[in-house]
C-alpha cells in the first residue's frame, strides 16, 4: 500500500517551516525587536527543501 494516496500532499510537510518563518518575520516588529532576515530566509528555504524531498521520497516509494 502506498503511504499516501496522492504524493503531492507530501509537500505539506514543508509548510510548517514556512509558517515558522512567517511568525519569525511577523512577530518581532510587534515588540520592536530586530528581525533576523537571514533566519527567515533559511527557514523559508528549508521549508521548500523539505517539501520537495518529502515528495521525492513518497513518489519514489513502492506501491506494495
List keywords for this structure.
elongated; 64 residues
Write the layout of secondary structure elements.
Elements: H1 15-26, H2 37-59
Helix pairs in contact: 1-2
Description of the structure:
With 64 residues, the protein is an all-alpha fold. It is built from two helices and no strands. The protein has helices spanning 15-26, 37-59.
Helical proportion, percent range: 40-55%
Radius of gyration: 16 Å
- Determine the N-to-C terminus distance: 5 Å
What order do the SSEs take from the amino end to the carboxyl end, as H and E?
A: HH
Query: What is the makeup of the main sheet?
Result: none
The proportion of residues in beta strands is: under 5%
Brief rundown of the structure:
With 64 residues, the chain is mainly alpha-helical. Helix content is 55%, strand content 0%. Helix 1 (15-26) packs antiparallel against helix 2 (37-59).
Amino acid at each position: 500500500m502506498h503511504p499516501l494516496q496522492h504524493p503531492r500532499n507530501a509537500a505539506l510537510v514543508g509548510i510548517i517551516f514556512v509558517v515558522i518563518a512567517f511568525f519569525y518575520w511577523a512577530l518581532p516588529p510587534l515588540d520592536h525587536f530586530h528581525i533576523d532576515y537571514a533566519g527567515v530566509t533559511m527557514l523559508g528555504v528549508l521549508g521548500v527543501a523539505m517539501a520537495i524531498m518529502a515528495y521525492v521520497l513518497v513518489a519514489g516509494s513502492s506501491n506494495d
